[in-house]
Specification:
Elements lengths: L32 E2 L11 H15 L11 H15 L8 E4 L2 H12 L5 E6 L4 H8 L3 E6 L8 H11 L3 E5 L11 H10 L3 E5 L15 H4 L3 E6 L12 E4 L2 H8 L9 H12 L1 H24 L3 E2 L6 E5 L4 H10 L2 E2 L8 E5 L3 H17 L2
Parallel strand pairs: 1-11, 3-4, 3-5, 5-6, 6-7
Antiparallel strand pairs: 2-8, 7-8, 9-10, 10-12
Helix pairs in contact: 1-9, 2-9, 3-4, 5-6, 10-12
Protein name: Histidinol-phosphate aminotransferase
Cofactor: pyridoxal 5'-phosphate
GO molecular function: histidinol-phosphate transaminase activity; pyridoxal phosphate binding
């Protein structure tokens, strides 16, 4: 029994908003095939690992000092990458970085949400948006998608005009459903919104659609685009998310960020990983091809598959999604029950992992017709 182990959560003077809640997170189970958290299945190449180790060793010599509070060199590198990817000439002044895009999103709601303010999102989508809203005491307004999970942009604009939220979240490609939102639709939503529109592009590299970053010059007073190195960049363990916005938005986030939030080790490792971006991102095409193969095979097996632009696929229909999730787990394949009725989400893995998943799917289709 640990010291003070008799103290229970219910004994603590916890804020009433948090009572009865459970922490966010998928089960981290040690099974052979893990396809549940949308990571890149390919480990970093040895040259990248060596470069990160060298950079971290060098940074370690300065560990007695606080890091660059503004992470300028890293933001310059991110701006260079994102300019190359989108064709928009961004500078470090347009880019802000934090420990994962979750922290970026939290900082956005700390600065632009909060008590008395509202944030709106189109569900089902990334559930951390509403959880971060709750954590920043921002009132959450859930708005609907079509039955096929696509975004009805005219209806969305009408809902925004009705509720006048301070912050709107648009996830493109959307997690967990996979569809992208066309840039013209993002413009329509920004026009309808009285406040900020945050386009969460965590999976943008897997999509062939243009990025909302292309709208920034025109709509920078209301548009923010968030990105992450956790998915395509194969850097989920490094914890590095970022955004592109008007420099004034970056100034606003500086008001809420904790000083020295990005450690000297994180900054050094992320910069080293970015130097290998071309090599890392080569896996993106392979994964997109595999996604299409997984989706087609699932369809041919009799499942209904939601079209995806990302590195995961939502599929169904199941009378009891939880029982089916367990049936995969029994076969050594961990996928995700994201709480969308009748559906499960599978992350695209290596061809071998996908084969294991598809083989399990054929058995399960026979068992759960
Ligand atoms: N946005 C979306 C849509 C995501 O799916 C995720 C990760 N699941 C994130 C943001 C956050 O990722 P990270 O904090 O690792 O950047």
């Amino acid at each position: 029994n640990p010291i003070a182990g008799r103290v229970r959560l219910a004994d603590l003077p916890l804020n009433a908003d948090l009572r009865g809640r459970s922490p966010y997170g998928a089960p981290q189970l040690d099974v052979p095939v893990r396809l549940n958290t949308n990571e890149n299945p390919y480990p970093p190449p040895p040259e990248l690992v060596a470069d990160v180790a060298r950079a971290v060793e060098e940074a370690a010599r300065e560990l007695h000092r606080y890091p660059d509070r503004d992470a300028v060199a890293l933001r310059e590198d991110l701006a260079r990458y994102l300019s190359g990817a989108t064709g928009v000439p961004l500078t470090a002044a347009n880019v802000w970085a934090a420990n994962g895009s979750n922290e970026v999103l939290q900082q956005i709601l700390q600065a632009f949400g909060g008590p008395g303010r509202t944030a709106l999102g189109f569900e089902p989508s990334y559930s951390m948006h509403s959880i971060i809203a709750a954590g920043t005491r921002t009132e959450w307004v859930p708005a609907p998608r079509r039955a096929d999970f696509s975004l009805d942009v005219e209806r969305a604009a009408a809902v925004i005009a009705e509720h006048r939220p301070d912050v709107v979240f648009v996830t493109s490609p959307n997690n967990p459903t996979g569809q992208s939102v066309p840039v013209a639709d993002v413009r329509r939503l920004v026009d309808a919104a009285p406040g900020l529109v945050v386009v969460d592009e965590a999976y943008a590299e897997f999509s062939s659609r243009p990025s909302a970053v292309t709208l920034l010059d025109e709509l920078g007073h209301k548009l923010v685009v968030s990105r992450t190195m956790s998915k395509a960049f194969a850097f989920a363990g490094g914890r590095l998310g970022y955004l592109a916005a008007a420099p004034a938005v970056v100034d606003a986030l500086q008001l809420v960020r904790l000083p020295y939030h990005l450690s000297v080790l994180t900054q050094a490792a992320a910069r080293a990983a970015l130097r290998h971006a071309d090599q890392t991102l080569a896996s993106v095409h392979r994964l997109s091809d595999e996604r299409d193969r997984v989706a087609e095979t699932l369809s041919a097996t009799g499942f209904s598959v939601v079209p995806s632009d990302a590195n995961f696929v939502l599929f169904g229909q199941f009378a009891d999604a939880d029982a089916v999730w367990r049936a995969y787990l029994d076969r050594g394949v961990l996928i995700r029950n994201v709480g969308v009725a009748g559906h499960l989400r599978v992350t695209v893995g290596t061809p071998e992992e996908n084969e294991a998943f598809l083989a399990a799917s054929k058995e399960i289709a026979a068992e759960h017709p």
